[in-house]
């Protein structure tokens, strides 16, 4: 009898299932797998224990036992979606993404915001080369947890790969001169990757080529909004606003661009914009001088006072000069400035006669006095024109205006006419006077920023 019982016990023990000990995982085998959390409704339940054992087996590399444990948990509680998600990860571990996908989908049918299921689904779709669908899954995961930096980088990479072909095609079409087709390709790329600033910058450049400045301006501004460090787009914005005569806006765009990245061309454009802005603040009579067939004494005084102000600023030895006929003249302040500096004198009766036409000898006299002021700062240059004795066929050395005319021509400020004629009585045009003032600026070494500076 005792032998029979012993045999029976041996038989039963042989037939009983072997208990596999739960492994202690020190180095997880699948670090890119995300273990689902146990829902509160299943906390501390037998199903949760089974599920935890399954993950221990999975990370130890025992896929068969892990699959059995997850299957047991799901059989015991069909609503326990973490087990469904985990079965998907087992299939991924077995290199079968096609089999993994239905598990993740079923888990998401129960809980659409299950982060591990969304991440696993994304991995399965990537393995199946379904990058567009994978991006959707990973974007949904980011919506659940925006802190997933690695996932965000992967999504950006997928976006870029998705538009890469369109970008290459757009650039090729642009190089071929097929601008309309290139614009269409860029538009498609932007629809797939609306947060990529360089796409807006490139499409804006094409829009500008076609003359669509409104669209170009809007897209350059989008590029800057997405990438505030985009100095090139800011410079392009400045150029467009400059062309639209929005000088204040152009000034700001150029200045912002230069604050980010020094650029000699942008600096020149900014200087030109500021000069134009200063010019527009000046009287209309001044702005019309370049086209004037002849200029007056008041016009010449304004040109000198505005463009050569620094030469006059430190010479006010004649502050008490009296001028009686300029109170209502548009150039009154500049007339007083040049009179005080001794560049242009009032007549004996204290009248300046601002409306009197300027002749070549009048301009030469003013130029010579300005050359004297320049020579005080540049004595080496002054010797050239001070010692010169230019021969004119219509102005003898004995003439009162000869020394001034000779110095002005020798300095290269004024020109002679045919047969070396000075043409002393000829009226001076606006363009001629402006050219002379520009040459004086160069001799004085004045920066461009002073060209429209008002007298202090």
Overview of the molecule:
The protein is an all-alpha fold and 456 residues long. It has three domains: 108 residues, Alpha Horseshoe (Serine Threonine Protein Phosphatase 5, Tetratricopeptide repeat); 113 residues, Serine Threonine Protein Phosphatase 5, Tetratricopeptide repeat; 162 residues, no CATH class. Helix content is 63%, strand content 0%. It has 22 helices and no strands. Helix 7 crosses helix 8.
Summarize the structure.
The protein is about 65% helix and about 0% strand. The chain is mainly alpha-helical and about 450 residues long.
Q: Any chance you could write out the topology, listing elements then pairs?
A:
Layout: H1 2-15, H2 46-60, H3 63-76, H4 81-93, H5 97-110, H6 115-127, H7 131-144, H8 149-175, H9 179-192, H10 197-209, H11 213-226, H12 231-243, H13 247-260, H14 264-280, H15 284-287, H16 297-307, H17 309-313, H18 332-340, H19 360-377, H20 379-386, H21 402-410, H22 430-444
Rg measurement, Å: 43 Å
Following the backbone from N to C, one meets helices and strands in this order, namely HHHHHHHHHHHHHHHHHHHHHH
Can you give the helix content as a percent range? 55-70%
Number of domains: 3
Tally of DSSP β-strands: 0
Averaged pLDDT: 88
User: Can you tell me the residue ranges where pLDDT is under 50 for at least 5 consecutive residues?
Assistant: 1-18, 448-456
Total of helices:
22
């Amino acid at each position: 009898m005792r032998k029979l019982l012993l045999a029976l016990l041996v038989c039963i023990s042989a037939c009983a299932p072997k208990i596999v000990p739960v492994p202690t995982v020190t180095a997880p085998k699948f670090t890119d797998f995300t273990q689902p959390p146990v829902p509160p409704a299943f906390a501390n339940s037998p199903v949760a224990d089974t599920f935890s054992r399954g993950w221990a087996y999975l990370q130890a590399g025992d896929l068969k036992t892990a699959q059995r444990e997850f299957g047991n948990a799901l059989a015991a509680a069909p609503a326990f979606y973490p087990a469904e998600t985990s079965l998907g990860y087992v299939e991924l571990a077995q290199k079968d993404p096609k089999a993994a996908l239905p598990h993740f989908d079923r888990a998401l049918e129960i809980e659409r915001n299950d982060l591990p299921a969304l991440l696993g689904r994304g991995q399965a779709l990537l393995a199946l080369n379904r990058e567009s669908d994978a991006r959707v899954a990973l974007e949904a995961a980011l919506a659940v947890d925006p802190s997933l930096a690695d996932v965000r980088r992967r999504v950006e990479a997928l976006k870029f790969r998705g538009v890469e072909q369109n970008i290459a095609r757009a650039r090729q079409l642009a190089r071929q001169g097929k601008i309309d087709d290139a614009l269409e390709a860029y538009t498609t790329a932007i629809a797939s990757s609306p947060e990529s600033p360089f796409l807006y910058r490139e499409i804006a450049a094409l829009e500008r080529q076609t003359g669509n400045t409104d669209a170009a301006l809007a897209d350059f501004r989008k590029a800057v909004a997405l990438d505030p460090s985009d100095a090139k787009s800011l410079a392009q914005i400045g150029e467009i606003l400059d062309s639209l005569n929005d000088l204040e806006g152009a000034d700001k765009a150029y200045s912002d661009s230069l604050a980010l990245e020094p650029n000699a061309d942008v600096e020149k454009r900014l200087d030109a914009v500021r000069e134009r802005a200063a010019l527009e603040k000046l009287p209309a009579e001044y702005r019309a001088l370049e086209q004037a067939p002849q200029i007056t004494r008041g016009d010449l005084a304004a040109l000198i006072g505005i463009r050569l102000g620094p030469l006059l600023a430190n010479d006010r030895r004649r502050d008490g000069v009296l001028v009686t006929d300029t109170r209502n003249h548009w150039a009154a302040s500049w007339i007083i400035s040049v009179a005080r500096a001794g560049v242009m004198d009032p007549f004996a009766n204290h009248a300046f006669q601002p409306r009197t036409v300027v002749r070549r000898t009048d301009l030469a006299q003013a130029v010579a006095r300005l050359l004297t002021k320049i020579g005080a700062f540049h004595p080496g240059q002054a010797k050239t024109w001070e010692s010169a004795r230019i021969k004119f066929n219509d102005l003898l050395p004995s003439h009162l205006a000869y020394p001034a005319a000779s110095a002005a021509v020798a300095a290269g400020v004024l020109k002679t006419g045919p047969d070396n004629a000075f043409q002393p009585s000829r009226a001076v045009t606006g363009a001629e006077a402006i050219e002379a003032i520009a040459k004086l600026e160069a001799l004085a070494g004045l920066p461009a920023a002073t060209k429209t500076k008002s007298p202090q």
